[in-house]
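S.,

Sequence below, as promised.
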Amino acid sequence: MKRNYLVILLILLTLALAACGGSSGPAASTGSSASGLPDLGGRTITVAVENAYLPFNYIDPTTGQPSGWDYEAIDAICALLNCKPVYVEAAWEGMIQAVANGQYDMAADGITITTDRAQIVDFSDGYISIQQRLLVRANETRINSIADVQNNPAIRIGTQTGTTNYETGVQVFGAERLQAFEQFPFAVQALIAGDIDVVLMDETAGQGYVGVNADQLKLVGEPLSSDQLGFIFPKGSDLVAPFNAALAELRANGKLDELADKYFSDKFTITYEDLE
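The prediction came back faster than expected:
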């Protein structure tokens, strides 16, 4: 009887522990949040940013604090996923390879999704579509279309090295006609100074340069291409699926629309001159 009594007590204790999560200590993490999104358990994530690419990431000239679409979007994503972003300033040149090498957990810098890049890094789902345009001086009369540039070998073309803008320029105009700059601000300065005649860049960036420089610069012609932008991660990263789930939630709850209205409309008035 005594033995049977102990057995019954053990069975009851086992059932009680199972009802409490199988342990007398704190409940184990289920791996998902109350909203059903993945729970990263407070994990720290290193995020490479350039801090020189309006409106995605920059140092606010008024506050001196890092700002931009990337910061707000990733902060919102980590609020959903229970993670802690640590932003690390990195030069655009070499950023993708650094992520591929595992130097950073991810990068956010208005990065165009391409098949070539996807061979060395994993992309998130696209979060915005960006068109490539031609930026010229406001008094330019020779350039109103892509064909005008193609048919006039005297027109000097600039863009930033290592970008899809450069790749598009090679395809459309030929590598021999391109002058590559380390950063877009240098290309735009050369354009204003008359050293080159046109800069090939993403439309959102071009709008930022036009900004208060409407008397000096303008965007012309039809788009050269339309590209999806995404975050990048090392190959096989376990962050891709959670970030895609969070992006889908931000799209559904209107946060991405809110950020687009803030950063990709005429409400955004910061220019590269403000950052100098």
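Residues 1-30 have pLDDT under 50 and may be disordered.

Coffee later?
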